[in-house]
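Dear Dr. V.,

Thank you for agreeing to look over these. As mentioned in my earlier message, I'm a first-year student in the group and I'm still getting used to reading structure tokens, so any feedback on how I've presented them would be very welcome. I ran two proteins. I've put each sequence directly above its structure. The first is here:
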Amino acid sequence: MEAESIVVGIMKMDVAGRDARDLGALTRLATERFTHVVDREPRLKITSLTFDGPPLTPGEHGFRALDFVQLGIQEKTERRLAFLLIVTEVEIAAPSLAYLLGLPSQLTNVAILSTRRLSDYGSANWKDDQLMAERLGTLMLHCFGRLLNLGYRADTTNYMARIQVPTDLDRMRHFTDRQFQQMADRLPREANDRYSSGNHFLFFLRQSLVNLPRILRGAWRANPLRLATRLPRMIATALSAIVILIFSAETWDFAASVSPTQLTVFVIASFLAGTFVLYRAFSFHLVATRRGDISESSVVTAGATGLALILTLLCLFVFFALLMYGVVIFVFPDPLMSTWTSARDGSSADAHLRLVLFLAAVGVLSGSLGGSADSRSVVRNVLFAGDET
């Protein structure tokens, strides 16, 4: 790769393995349209790739988009690409839409595009190769713009207009000069195309600091509050453990006697353990190249995923603490709190605070074990695929 080149890969991924709907020719024509539009940016280098017959299994409503994203991460890393657009001919399942045309995963710089719904089967458009190629090329431009964090536009003729139905693609014809300037400004920052050449730990630490704004943006986009609602088993497991403990006199004894330092260490350890368990359950498998190099993109993805999970646990920690404080204040009578503990008075505000912090930490720790059993695809969709088209 040239020193100043930013490589965008466009990969034909024929799942059926038989070039259904002449996917190769369609992708080639769409790539020409895509290249013609982005040719205004001299640093971009477009490369065409083929990956036939991936070992994917369809779900109830079609193939899962995030399975393609996982394959895309591997291919993007090994081929040292800054961005990767994957074009497939099969139906892609969408968690909140009737069907999916494209899914740009801004955190991974991988976008999945399906030709399956670009026109109705058996219609006149079905055999109109030129129209289909134009729609696919427009969809490529739209998804690439989203990978660069270009905002949606109200102008229906702009490539960044919202897409409701495939025919909307026919009206989308241009980027504005301001959008081209935004692309030029953001390309070096969003490409994340550096690779480690020495100590992996130092590379990870350095790239985490350099890309901190992008990591923070990725974690915020994942919406920790929304993610917390996607972990019902975690919440159920945590509440089960907390309810048992709060009605135990030993718990009140411990909370009344534990030192602030000991409690702080326990809370921090609970967060670290909970984050580790959830990260192993829900994160993508981030791979190195065959030479053992790790990519800047992998560092950003891992950092944003870990931070999003920490913020999610923090939301749940606050929820558990407030819930238990309400139980302590409104359920337990003061005489019982005063006499139940054998060491110190358990009815003081200080003892209550230590108790709810301890129970909330137990909830985070125990709940993370149950949370790892929640649906991986549901949680991953919140983390990596919130921008459905």
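The second protein is here, in the same arrangement:
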Amino acid sequence: MFDCLTKIFRSGGVRAIYKGLVPGLQRQMCFASVRIGLYDQVKGSYTKFFMGKQNPSGENFGIRILAGITTGGMAVLFAQPTDVVKVRMQAQKEGFVRYKGCVEAYVKIARTEGIRGLWKGTLPNMTRNAVVNASELVTYDYIKTSILKHQILKDGVPCHFLSAFGAGFITTIFASPIDVVKTRFMNSPPGEYKGVVNCATSMFRNEGFFAFYKGLV
């Protein structure tokens, strides 16, 4: 990772490290507004549907996971074009510029690959976010409960930080293979892979199991 970072900095300077920043910000604004903004409403709706008035606060663990998966999937459908452009602009190498800016990237992808090109990799992205949301919620809650139960820390910022760090680490272990396949498929030229499954099997056949954990650190 550090060798990669150093080489990018030497060849392109600070700007090279921030490739894809604009579509990255667009992606976060679109993604977070749906994933986080609609979470409480969706959780409340699921609570009323599945539990009536027995648990109006929506504290049921299964409902939390279901609401997280739902809003995560909705966010992907809404923000997928920004993710495609972000990945492609980040993957550009010095001397080979596919897109001069994010607006040109949106136009070129739509023109050469059709509207479907902007939603390329939606399925693995939705799968990734389902895994991320579910594993984050489960592990965060479990770690925090264990810390408080064994009185390792009091309920405060250090406890929440440690729980979030552990949840992020475990989530990355589970989600990294899906993330690698998603990135590889979204960045591939038209016709290189027949689909997401073909992309994953080609990676495994040509590069082995550990190819799915590229960029883990």
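From my reading of the second output: The two ends are 7 Å apart (CA to CA). The CA atoms of residues 203 and 209 lie 8 Å apart. Does that match how you would interpret it?

Kind regards,
E.
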